[in-house]
Each structure stands twice: as C-alpha cells, then as structure tokens.
Amino acid sequence: MKKIVTFIILLACTTINAQNSTDVLRYSLDNTQGTARFQSMSGAFGALGGDLSALNVNPAGSAVFKNSLFTVSGTAYDRNNSSSYNNTRNKTEENYININQAGGVFILKSSGNSNWKKIALAINYDVVSNFDNEILTSGTSQQGIDNYFLNFAQGVTLGSISRQQGEFLEDAYLDIGANQGFSDQQAFLGYYGGVIDPIDEIDDNTQYIRTAEYNSINQALLKNTSGYNSKLTLNIASQYQNNLYFGASLNFHNVFYQEYKEFTETGYNSDSPIQRTIFDNSLRTEGNGVSLNIGAIAKLNKNVRIGGSYQSPTWYKLDDEFSQRIDSDLGDENINFINFNVVNLFDTYTIKTPSKFTGSLALIFGKDGLLSFDYVYQDMSKGELRPTTDSSFSIENDNIRNNLNAVSTLKIGGEYRISRVSLRAGYRHQQSPYADNNLIGDLTSYSAGIGYNFGGSRLDFSLNQTEQDSSERLFSTGITTPTMINRINTNATLSYTLNF
Prior knowledge:
The protein has 500 residues and is mainly beta. 11% of the residues lie in helices and 53% in strands.
C-alpha cells in the first residue's frame, strides 16, 4: 500500500531556482505603488512630502502635513505580457483589484515660541510589489527537457540515485534531496520519470542518454505567479523653524510569493518510445523583513525645496517550499506519487537587499502647481544571500557581484491646480539591474491623474503604465534558447483622503 509524504525537512539550504539573483531583484525593486496622487506623479515626492506613500521615499515628508488625515487606496491591475520563443508568439492578460494602501498621520503642533513647530506620527501600509502575473511560452525547439536532466545526471553514479529495496519512490526522492542535494534529486527525477536512461544498468554507471527520439519538439510552459511584498511603516518626523523637516521610519515587510510552472513537451518522432512529457514545479516563499529610513527636507526659499534620504538594506528572513511532478510514457508506475503533496522544506535563509539613496528637488509655483525631481541610486551588486557560509550561496553571491549593476532611477512629477481640481502627470526611467541589459531592459513608466478637493476630504485618481523587456530561460539549465518577454503593466488607482 502506497503512502503520500506530506513534509520532509531538507537538512541543507540547497540552491533551487528561486534562491539566486532573481530573488534579490524581486525583493529589491519596487513598483511605484501607493496613493493615487503618489502614482500619478511617478513617485517623485522626495522633496515634497505631504502624502502618506511619500514616506517610502523620504520619511521627513510627514512633517509637511498641515493637519491629521487618513487615506485609503484601491488599485485595478492589468498585466499584459507578450512572449516570443523560437519565433512563436503568445499573449496573456490578467486583471484584478486590491486594496494597496491605507494609513494615517497625526499632527501635534507646538505651543509657544519653540523652534520645533510640530511633530508628525504616521502609520502606513503599502503594497511595494504585486506578484500576480501569468506568462505563456510555446514553440518548437531542438532542445528537449532531457537536456535539463542530463546536465544534472552526467557523472552521478546510478546507485546513488536509485531507490533502495522496499523504499517508496517519494521517500527516495525526498531523501536524495535532503542528503545529496538538488542536483542529484533532479537526476533521480529524470531517471524515474523515464526521460533519461543509464548506459549500463550497474550501480557504478555515470553516463546517461535520453530515451526520446526527436529532431524537433513542441514545448509549452505556463508560468503563473501570485503574492505580494507589503510594507508597514511606523514614522516620526518634525518641523524645525519654518524651513527644515526631519524624519525617520521603521519598516516591517511581509512577503508571500507563489510560482507555478507547467511544462509540456510533445511532437517526438513517431517511433519514439515517449510521445509526451510533463514536468511541473511549484515554489512557495513566505517571510518577513525589516528596514530603516531617515531623511530631511529643506525649503531654500518659497519656490525651491531640496530633499535627501537613505533607506537601509532590508533583511528578509524567508522560508521556501518546493514541489515537483513529472510523467511520461516511460515513467515508473509509481511516479505519480511524487506530486505537489510531497514538499521539500528548506532551512530559513536571509536576503539582504542593497541600501538606497535618494536626492530630490522640487519647484513650487505658489498655489498654481509644482514640478518635482527625484534621483535614486541603488547598487544591486551589493545584494546578498545568507548564510554566506553556505557554498551554494557563496557561488550565487559571486554571480550577483559579477552580473548585477548599480541602478539609477529618474522620477519626474508635476501638478497643476485649477481651483479645487488638480491635474497631474509623471515620468520614471529605471536602468536595467544587469550588466547585460538583454536579460532585463530599462523600465519606462508614464503616469497621469486628477484630484478634487472637497475641503474636508479629497478624491484622487491615477493611471500608471510601465513597460519593460526581459529574457528568460524555460529552465535553469539544458534549454538555452530564451523567451523574449515584453511586459506592460497598467495600474488604475483611486484614493480617498479624509482630513481631521
């Protein structure tokens, strides 16, 4: 009688597809979420303040508020992806709605002749990044999934990836992963999945061949991701005399990320013993982090403000759960017992994201409007996976230092007021984090919005669209032809602010 193993703890934090530079970038780069006013001006608020989401840029901004208030925001997301793989094109589109921001600020004004005019206490929740997305890749290739498994299997003895007498297949899969690592586990999966065979059926065999016959095959990969990276900010700021603002924030981050990859391969030769192979992977990551922001804003005169801020590295503590399933015409009769109920658990690991510096300039045109400029610098090569004593992480950290670059981001925002109506627009350009910008291209964003001030409250609306190209492989090894992806993300955000 067969059993299903639900959880087995892997003893070592062996590198899997998620624990690499992609992870560091996923939690380092934000997506300009926030209030509608913040998004409509592309987040260029470092010298302005006066918006709860501006605390993410410069924590001194809460002291700019003249009164206490509360703001809540909801966003309708549209994710539009176009992929090209070996000259075959696919498109996917996802739509959903979420509450992405909520927070308030309480203003304490000083009495008497104190130089400290007021103190601001703020708490704000923001979705930094939303991971909900779907990408479909399909096309014809000369590189089959057997190459993935062969790259792991060559040089590995057959005896070390064979189940023991009386051992359940799923137990052997988990045991090999726990004691020998991810590479041997994949070799085991390819062997019992029927995709590869040893040249000799002896324990000392170290050479393997594919079982399928093909000149070219049809491949399809559906990649579905979901989750978020959110941030709860506790902020304190103060105004000194009439021209200086100082602030600091303590940020608590919460991460949930889920990735599901469904791969199908067909179109083998008619005499091939395999006619269809499926290989699916599921990754679930949860954790939390902490970071610190400090900043200042100075009014040089009634028309010019400057700002500067520093965001410390964020230290994330993360846990991964990883599951796989495989099937083919030659798969072991019990191969279906290795499924998403058989979960690999990994030791808790840490990601340290790079620190961030922001310099800001704002031009104020009385009550008519303003222009604002932010320059953000973040050196992605300073990101790190920990513990650094883990050999796999040491290799990945070397890759991060060698392949990632410093990222400069320019944000420009403007606002023009007509009585109670505010018209807004913005632009953002973010450099590629990779030395080879063919992997991920520069990001370009345009935004616009409108707001209406009722006196005691305000209603704001924004449209924000980003576009970026990237190149992704179907798997980490074996299939070298990349998928070229064009991502166009559009956010429509509505915010309501109530003054006290």
